[in-house]
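Hi everyone,

Forwarding the result from last night's run.
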Amino acid sequence: MLKTLSKCIREYKTASILSPLFVTCEVVLECLIPFIIAQLITVIDVPAGTSIDMGQVWMYGGILVSMAIASLATGALAGAFCARASAGFAKNVRKDMFYKIQEFSFENIDKFSTPSLVTRMTTDVTNLQVAYMMIVRIAVRCPVMIIFSAVMAFVLGGNLAWIFLAVMPVLILALGFIMFKTMPLFKRVFKKYDALNESIQENINGIRVVKSYVREDYEKQKFGRAAEDVCRDFTRAERLLAWNNPIMQFCFYGVICAVLYIGSIFILESIGSTNTAAVSQLIVYGMQILSSLMMFSMVFAMIVMSMESARRICEILNEKSTLQNPEHPVYDVTDGSIDFEDVSFKYAATAEKNVLEDITLHIKSGETIGIIGGTGSSKTSLVNLISRLYDVTSGSVKVGGRDVREYDLETLRNQVAVVLQKNVLFSGTIKENLRWGNKNATDEELVEACKLAQADEFIQGFPDKYDTYIEQGGTNVSGGQKQRLCIARALLKKPKILILDDSTSAVDTHTDALIRKAFREYIPTTTKLIIAQRISSVEDADRIIVLESGKIDGIGTHEELLKTNKIYSEVYYSQIKGAGAAEEGGEQNA
């Protein structure tokens, strides 16, 4: 874990080293100041009638002022370097996590879940940042302060200083017990943080549905339960950690009382070299030792809390993508032919049943293939294997005559354009969104792609046309407009394979037909796979595949399937009947 996280320090190594060095200088100066004060007290504590050596007073006074200024300067520098080191460390951790997540396959993301990834990149990294700040400054300061104060205490107080060391085993045992009890609680509470974030994310994503069904109270109760779970475990953990302070205070004041009591006996009986100055400064050193221990208990509490955060972060950083480039990848996709050979697939190795089973299919380059089937028939799972979003469980998928696992991932995905069921537009202008397909596309190429996708007409209706700003998620355009922009974006890739995953469901049948006509005329060499619920969207395809429960139930042209495939004919006639009923109802209303 430490090895993994230490890689994130990188350019902040200098700041991470200078901060402890300046802290050490600050502590040494703070420990010497009481010693100088003791010497000053000895100079001015003279019998009545004896003159004070003002030269020595001014000398020790000057030394004290100089040491105080130097201590202030080194403390400020330590704080500045500490802030730079901890903030930079957290920045690198977040950046490394984000870059790592970009490399993840869908299988990796499914393993962690989106809410958990968000929690790890926010709450967990913040905990780690605070812990790192304490480690490079306070965790260095405390042991150095204890060691130097203990040495100076022995120099000034002799055997009287053993009182401080006697109490340390008690404090160490107490801290160890608290750590043992709180670690499982923090481990559990961060899992509940994930559940809390999941509740928030689900509510925000589905806010329209929540309001439509007036389920606000239910969502509030669900969030309340998740928040209560987090609060309960955190309260138990904090209650245990709260014992740090009273235990430290008890030991602190107990030691002070012991020093005063025993020290006064030593002074009265003139034991050793103990005097008033020594006892007074011994108390100062005792306060420094015990306050450092109290400070260390705070660091300890934060480290305990952050250890689980560090473990969760390292899980992300050490995770290897389930999809890796081969040792000698192929960088050229010759054509858009697709071959499924005895393909079976399941999302998790532990799953009992395959999502796809015994799929054998050969698609020529430039063919238009329709894919139809009921909900849960694994249509999307089938096309996800083409761009290698997942790897097959058995069998092989070939593009351009080569197994997709032989290609460089970027090369393969640049030649396979996918318009997903859930269309996503990003905040920015229409031009910026379209150039996700080709960052170097000219304005003329943007317009041409939008004309093919039947998007140019409504774009020209906007006051700013192609410079119109799209809100995050495309909330200021309709579902059909969003789909057409996403199709145009995919066309700009000029792919060898184009996959439309139910991506014209929000457009009318006339616009759908125009889009398909444009595909036939302008990109005839591109292999087109169209997943649809409407028969009208696929009936003019070269071939249509009917999927049922992850298996191919039938394949052929529209006319062939009407005669030979029961599922296809039932869907067709039910849709024709529905369309007829709609037309009849329209005539009656007219």
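Residues 54-103 form the longest helix (50 residues).

Cheers,
N.
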